[in-house]
Amino acid sequence: MPGYQTRRTFIKRDQLLPTTNANGKLKRNLSLVVLVVQNSTLVLMMRYSRIVQKPGQSMYIASTAVFLAEVLKIIACLFVMYRQQRYWSKFILVVRNEILGKPAETAKMLIPSSLYALQNNLLYVALSNLEAATFQVTYQMKILSTAIFSVVLLGRSLSRSKWLALVLLMIGVTLVQSQSMSTPPPDDTVQSPFIGLVAVITSCISSGFAGCYFEKILKTSETSMWVRNIQLGISGAFFSLVGMLMYDMQPLRQGGMLQGYDWLTWVVIGNQALGGLLVAIVVKYADVILKSFATSISLILSSAISFYFFDFQLSMQFVVGACIVILATYNYSVPDKKVLTPPTATTKPH
């Protein structure tokens, strides 16, 4: 879902069309709009779909939505591969050689795909127990987990300013969550802010580890990004199916897989499946500053919508914490300034 991309989608920049100077500004503005819409709508729609039900309508099973989102994502990637190959015979050959013919490569995706499947299910748990605005601010903790795992797994080093941004991030999230813990849920809902917090933290940790692990695999392989995402989707669909059958077998037998589904449920599934692909494409035209700006706008927009439509109690403590998180997110995304060392002075021989 980060934006809210529940499972990261990786696309090489050279697989996308270059930006021309004539329409570069238009594409940057369009990218900003798409990132804001993606970051905001998924969380708000997921939250709404979990707390609002029509009379007599049962709640849809979250694990079925996760599984169908993975299937839809595989279909979308296969469609893109077919468009790239242009001919059915070439497309079948690529699928046979790169996907079906390399089970060992698909097996490499088992660890990140299992973590992404866990993360996607936890998002529904979190949004069933937390307000959309509170969730969206707290979910920025994935920046902290990704930073730590990038140091451990990828050998990166963080500057002092970035560590300071991470400390500010923790302070802001703590303020927001302390307000959430002290505010009782509405009388007509069964919510547990503590369960929501645990779900968000676990999701952030799994997201950070899986993302860095996947990036490490990508750096040691020449496999196409679309093929990798299909392999990731196959493994993710498998783990989602196993989880669905293990934990929701009884309600599945009673009401079927699509019980409680309506148009909003399908929109949420489509947004979750295709939103990551769309964001991955528009990110070509958006630098890190623009992405950070989009995240900040999304936090403000989600808070405003939650306040007006979901009876969200907007306290000064939440506002201060959210502002700190926005500041920390922006500071972390700003590239470090390169220090230019002056040339060494040389003395001419006498």
Overview of the structural elements:
- The protein has one domain.
- Helix content is 71%, strand content 0%.
- Mean pLDDT is 78; it is low at 1-7, 11-20 and 345-350.
- It starts with 23 loop residues before the first helix and ends in a 17-residue tail after the last helix.
- It contains 14 helices and no strands.
- The protein is an all-alpha fold.
Please count the beta strands (DSSP E, at least 2 residues each).
Answer: 0
Tally of separate domains: 1
What is the helix content?
over 70%
Strand content: under 5%
Mean pLDDT over all positions:
78
Helix and strand composition category? mainly alpha
Give the distance, in angstroms, between the N- and C-terminal Cα atoms.
67 Å
Number of helical stretches of at least 4 residues? 14
Return Rg in Å: 22 Å
Order of helices and strands: HHHHHHHHHHHHHH
List its traits.
single chain; mainly alpha; 14 helices; 71% helix
Topology:
Elements: H1 24-51, H2 62-85, H3 88-100, H4 103-107, H5 110-127, H6 132-138, H7 142-154, H8 160-182, H9 193-219, H10 225-247, H11 249-255, H12 263-282, H13 288-309, H14 316-333
Helix pairs in contact: 1-12, 1-13, 2-5, 2-10, 2-12, 5-9, 5-10, 6-13, 7-9, 8-14, 13-14
Q: Brief description of this entry?
A:
It comes from Circinella minor. With 350 residues, the protein is mostly helical. The protein has helices spanning 24-51, 62-85, 88-100, 103-107, 110-127, 132-138, 142-154, 160-182, 193-219, 225-247, 249-255, 263-282, 288-309, 316-333.
